[in-house]
């Protein structure tokens, strides 16, 4: 394969194992050794490419890296015609995306900003560990894959306690169509009224560029309102948000085709319609992506917050969260309603409709009425109904169980398919309360494993 700055990648061997050998021109000595240095520092993570060794010869520096059979770009763009297409079928898209952001979280925790997240720099490799599953009483080996972040040539190491760095003409970096707006806006001359009326001027001769591989090393002016422009880890989050949609949509980009992407990125004009037919999963994915591609970098979530989003939760975790939320809301003052309950019921019609009973099967409605009266206009009562049916599931008549579905998957789907906004609504009621999300019953939903 070929990369920027005259880079060529070969297949080779190192100590008896197959490796990828990356050859870099010594004309770009600083870039080459910068990449090696960051690889040595950051490769101790399952979602970051493994570095083995380096050798210098004549005009080249050779780097031995973990060999991966395909990139995310290969799998999405070439689809079933690609010889390693089966790799993609072994993972749900959410598993792919979680591994990408887990790798980013690792880099960011080491104060490394990647600066060139795109499909070509996300590699796919078979898992190092074999997994086994039992089906019809027979134990079978199942294949799984690892998703790895690669290509550290444009990475930036943040100095000391700094959380940002200067975006200058010497270190801007990024790839056309995958760069955050703050990396582009320095090229747009400000208009007298403060609006970017000259935004079209930034888009020049992009039709001559190969969007699949072109990497920029400059974005224009290095000053913003007379001050040196500074950018943060949020540029990686923006690129990852675009990548999320690329995976979920099967190759589309939220900001359009390659000829209009950068103008749309600057304008904040995007399209996520491919997620509309995915039910609750699509609603949660859209919420997450919209936050990641927010124009204002300060409003984008950090990598760990992305990893904690309900989109990545298992059905059992989602169900447990809704149950815990119901228990917590039940102890709140109802008359008059506490501020927390008022927040919960804001926009209730959009979440559950004017009467949630009308979205529930008659069989379930009749069973609910035997034990307690619920207010069909309140989110709190719907959560309580869900909680009570889950808590007493084993005691329910068989025909009610069949209607509700098996726990956790079927039971959760019964409610979320009828109320697809419910999960996110309850999540943000709790997540946006600093005191509530720190309570013992919720804390584990808002902390990464190993960081508690």
UniProtKB/TrEMBL annotation:
Molecular function per GO: ATP binding; hydrolase activity; metal ion binding; protein serine/threonine kinase activity; RNA endonuclease activity; unfolded protein binding
Broad enzyme group: transferase
Subcellular location field: Membrane
Superkingdom assignment: Eukaryota
SMART domains listed in its UniProt record: PUG (SM00580), S_TKc (SM00220)
Listed cofactors: Mg(2+)
CDD domains: RNase_Ire1, STKc_IRE1
A Pfam family the protein falls into: Ribonuc_2-5A
Record PROSITE patterns: KEN (PS51392), PROTEIN_KINASE_DOM (PS50011), PROTEIN_KINASE_ST (PS00108)
Domain Protein kinase: 1-312
Catalytic reactions of this protein: L-seryl-[protein] + ATP = O-phospho-L-seryl-[protein] + ADP + H(+); L-threonyl-[protein] + ATP = O-phospho-L-threonyl-[protein] + ADP + H(+)
SUPFAM superfamilies in the cross-refs: Protein kinase-like (PK-like)
Keyword annotations from UniProtKB, A to Z: ATP-binding, Glycoprotein, Hydrolase, Kinase, Magnesium, Membrane, Metal-binding, Nucleotide-binding, Serine/threonine-protein kinase, Signal, Transferase, Transmembrane, Transmembrane helix
Predominant localisation class: membrane
A GO biological process held by the record: mRNA processing
PANTHER family: IRE1-RELATED (PTHR13954), NON-SPECIFIC SERINE_THREONINE PROTEIN KINASE (PTHR13954:SF6)
Protein name per UniProt: non-specific serine/threonine protein kinase
Species in which this protein is naturally found: Rhizophagus irregularis
